[in-house]
User: Fold this.
Amino acid sequence: MKPGLEQLPANFEGRNVTFQRARSNEQRDQRRSVILTTATAMLGEMPVADITLNELSRRVGLAKSNVLRYFESREAVLLELLSTQLDEWISALDFSDVAVGDRLQVRAERVGGLVAASLGGRPALCDLISAQAAVLERNVSTEVVLAHKRAVQNSVREFGAKLRASIPEADDSDVYQVIASTLLMTSGAWPRSQPSEALTAAYEADPSVGGHDFDFAGFVQQTVAFTITGLLGRK
Assistant:
């Protein structure tokens, strides 16, 4: 099971819901919560690519058509999870031990290290980020995408407030560039750090093809630090 995700019992099947048809807003919210909780548990067991609407429906204890009453697609479920986990990640970020009096490079490397450590401890979030542009935003309505983007904007504002407390030289544009580059880098670097069995076997069989251990945390730290110092160094 991936760290930070609570695994539901195998016989969970939406058992905490005692009603068969959600008739009130409270019951509909409860049903949505069960679907999201179940999908979160599945992320602890398997990658995003392996989560199917059929299996999600089975675990929740609803027909697939009933799950679609609450979320328009599998991607809509996962996109909401991404919004939630992104918010939780940024809320948990703590830059309080970054000394404002230190040189910019020292602060940038420290911030990069904290971002890298926190992302590395949230594999499900990294997996969702990796699937966002190519998968999660492809089978959803404008309404769902807008809700996700607005949630991300709120998270970015919180990230900005924390970053500027440690790096007051950064303005709104700098903050956007830092978090945008972090997310874009994660979307490519995380899959690289999780090679398939076939790829691992190929590297072991013939190291000359370029296989080597990929340090996700180190790559994130350097990228964040370079982005901060590069942006502010131009001013």
